[in-house]
């Protein structure tokens, strides 16, 4: 991994795009959330990040008094959207992008809204194909549900760059956590991206993805491999989610065990929906 830039530093990464790294590195956010500023004379801000005073100040410095046409949100997890409120107050810009709704009820004891920004309230919800534009730049929303039910990516038409949020990241595969996260939707969204010809991805976490179609093909293969593991293990014997994680993720960082369990559950729910697996007395089995 290349050394990440210092937090709070405005880093130009192409003529229309500047990146500012938030100071919220963790096992789930890698080096932190990356806020992207698009435009020259007027700008859009994509995923302003956590509610952190130092990051607010860094964004104001990077914007440098330019008009902010929109604050765009790929999804309203707490590491992506909370700073939007302070930024909107400071600039007068509307908050636009993903809807605030969260799908609930998977029966596995998940805290449905634990990861979400409960105060998120967009001024305008964008759907697939909706656009936001300024002087010399156009951003088009692309529906990419899966990591969350309302996840969006944003395509910069002038340079064929895609801001992929947490759907495709530059350091790890996305966590799919039911009930709001959905494995079937996630895989379908990857297929949508595979059919596109974007030049580069700028994710919410991790380095830029310079060969995006190759990475997306690999991610699809990885998920199919995980599904195959689950089917083989359940064919041998019914198992709980915890037992599957123990067999599938040998040597896993204990801090990530919960995320692994959520993604395994997402696979199981997808298999159940397709008539391959079923729940029975606290465990899962092949039908």
UniProtKB/TrEMBL annotation:
<dbReference type="Pfam" id="PF00753">
    <property type="entry name" value="Lactamase_B"/>
</dbReference>
<dbReference type="InterPro" id="IPR041516">
    <property type="entry name" value="LACTB2_WH"/>
</dbReference>
<feature type="domain" description="Metallo-beta-lactamase">
    <location>
        <begin position="31"/>
        <end position="205"/>
    </location>
</feature>
<dbReference type="Pfam" id="PF17778">
    <property type="entry name" value="WHD_BLACT"/>
</dbReference>
<protein>
    <submittedName>
        <fullName>MBL fold metallo-hydrolase</fullName>
    </submittedName>
</protein>
<dbReference type="InterPro" id="IPR050662">
    <property type="entry name" value="Sec-metab_biosynth-thioest"/>
</dbReference>
<dbReference type="InterPro" id="IPR036388">
    <property type="entry name" value="WH-like_DNA-bd_sf"/>
</dbReference>
<dbReference type="InterPro" id="IPR001279">
    <property type="entry name" value="Metallo-B-lactamas"/>
</dbReference>
<dbReference type="InterPro" id="IPR036866">
    <property type="entry name" value="RibonucZ/Hydroxyglut_hydro"/>
</dbReference>
């Amino acid at each position: 991994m290349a050394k990440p830039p210092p937090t709070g530093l405005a880093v130009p990464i192409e003529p229309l795009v500047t990146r500012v790294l938030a100071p919220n590195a963790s096992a789930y956010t890698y080096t932190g959330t990356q806020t992207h500023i698009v435009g020259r004379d007027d700008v859009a801000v994509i995923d302003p990040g956590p509610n952190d005073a130092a990051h607010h100040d860094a964004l104001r410095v990077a914007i440098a008094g330019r008009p902010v046409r929109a604050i765009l949100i790929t999804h309203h997890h707490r590491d992506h959207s909370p700073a939007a409120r302070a930024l909107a107050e400071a600039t007068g810009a509307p908050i636009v992008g993903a809807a605030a709704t969260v799908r609930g009820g998977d029966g596995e004891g998940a805290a449905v809204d634990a990861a979400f920004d409960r105060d998120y309230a967009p001024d305008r919800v964008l759907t697939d194909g909706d656009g936001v534009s300024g002087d010399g730049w156009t951003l088009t929303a692309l529906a990419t549900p899966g990591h969350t039910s309302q996840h969006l990516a944003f395509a910069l038409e002038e340079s064929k760059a895609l801001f992929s949020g947490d759907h495709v990241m530059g350091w790890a595969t996305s966590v799919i956590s039911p009930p709001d996260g959905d494995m079937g939707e996630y895989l379908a969204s990857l297929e949508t991206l595979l059919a596109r010809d974007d030049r580069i991805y700028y994710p919410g976490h991790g380095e830029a993805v310079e060969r995006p179609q190759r990475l997306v093909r690999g991610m699809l293969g990885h998920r199919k491999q995980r599904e195959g593991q689950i089917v083989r293990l359940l064919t041998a014997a019914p198992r709980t989610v915890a037992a599957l994680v123990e067999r599938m993720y040998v040597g896993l960082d204990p801090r990530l065990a919960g995320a692994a369990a959520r993604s395994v559950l997402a696979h199981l729910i997808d298999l159940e929906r397709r008539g391959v697996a079923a729940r029975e007395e606290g465990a899962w089995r092949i039908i």
